[in-house]
Amino acid sequence: MSDSGKIKVSPVKMFILLILLIAAQPILGGCLKDSSVQLHSGTSHDVPNEKESTETSSTERKIFPVNPEKGEFNRAAGWVTNDTILYITEAADGSRLFTYQLSTGADKLIFKSEFPVVKAEVNSLRKQILIHSARSTHEAELTIIDYDGKILADQRIDSYELSFEWNKEEDGEVLVTAFNEDWSYKTYLLKINENSLSKLDLPQPFAVWKSSEEILFLNWDQDSPDLQAPLIEKNLSNQKQRELLSSVHHIDSSKKVIMAVSTNQENKEFAVYRFMTKDLETISSLKVFQLTTYSGWLTPYYDIMDSQGSFIYFRPVTSGEADLYGEEFTLSRFSFKEGKEVDLVTGLANEPLSCSVQGELCLYGHQFEKVIDLREKKIHSLVKSQEQLKGEK
Question: What is the pLDDT of residues 196-212, one digit of tens each?
Fold first, then answer.
């Protein structure tokens, strides 16, 4: 891939610009995965509670669309159980966060804010919810609650935009990066049990957790931007760091695996997704057509399913430039345990994706306003249409 004749933009600045189109729909914008860093937080899912109900293959699944009585639907915000999601509404008096059971239509108000809620996210152990509210353009509030709405921690932070990453090993820690309007940043460690926010010294603004004390980041050279960067491991306790891989353009981690995406050296039309244990032993790898952006490589949306030992992702059907790509994507499931892949749904757009623990339902769309039933191969609207609402009056 050649970038001759095109303006070079650093991966970090490219990511920040995309965040402004994404994270805060009512006040700051929309969502796309950049080639260098992860916008979607790569939630990993543990084995579901045995008491959670599952559908039999002989019964058609019923999905009840959301009908917010007070306020306007803003976005869904992830999975609580196989059948229950979170969603956010906006009204003149602020934002509300609900749990919602798809199979019954039952909802429960668990949080109110007088300020717009930019984002809410469940942690990997499915016990806590992080809520990012915008008190003003340059001040954010981070609130951690449990599913009963009890506030576990609350911190205000000066920022123009925020990025955060749950610790997959420790239930009470979040890595937080706060950006100023000039793209300078500070990184913090939020400890929920102590309700404390301490500054960290990191050379890059975006990182993912490798273990309870180790993080991973791509060490981009801002003075000489490149399409790939070394993958670095840093221990937060002793500050020691080491290089793990020399050329990577996207990383993510779950509780059980590390995923590193790089360009195939023999044929740059392909990306290689490498899945590794936390001890950096390769489990399996996957070669996929890849698309270029003017600053690097596009990593389509995906979700890592720890409990299934698999990876659900949007696969391009050919290589090329992302802006000129006229084809649709195939939603596929790759078992990194077995090294096998199966196509799930064809002819879809590359939009944000978050799948349930058992991997049968996925929230889909820029506001997670749709639900993909992978068993039935159907896409349902999560929100009642105006026609449906008129018919109920």
Answer: 999 998 888 899 999 98
Q: Is 90 exceeded by the pLDDT of residue 29? A: no
Gyration radius (Cα) of the chain, Å:
20
- Residue 32 phi/psi, 5-degree rounding, is -150, 145
Residue 216's contacts (CB-CB under 8 Å, 6 or more residues apart) are: 207, 208, 209, 210, 231, 232, 233, 234, 244, 251, 253, 258
Phi/psi zone of residue 365: left (φ > 0), alpha (ψ -120 to 50 degrees), beta? left
Q: In sequence order, which ranges of 6-120 are alpha helices (DSSP H)?
A: 11-20
Q: What is the helix, strand, coil percentage profile of the chain, to 5?
A: 5, 45, 50
Q: Is the dihedral of CA 244, 310, 350, 272 positive or negative?
A: positive
Determine the Cα angle at 370 with ends 365 and 373, to 5°: 115
d(CA 235, CA 258): 16
pLDDT over 50 (residue 116): yes
The DSSP code for 18 is H
Q: Is 43 exposed, middle or buried (0-12, 13-18, 19+ CB in 10 A)?
A: buried
Asked if residue 249 lies in contact with residue 35, where contact means CB atoms within 8 angstroms, the answer is: yes
Distance from C-alpha of 60 to C-alpha of 22, rounded to nearest angstrom: 34
> Nearest-CA neighbor of 226 among 5, 4, 9?
9
Exposure letters 3-21 (e unless 16+ CB within 10 A, then b):
eeeeeeebbbebbbebbee
How far is residue 302's CA from residue 312's CA, in Å, rounded to a whole number?
6
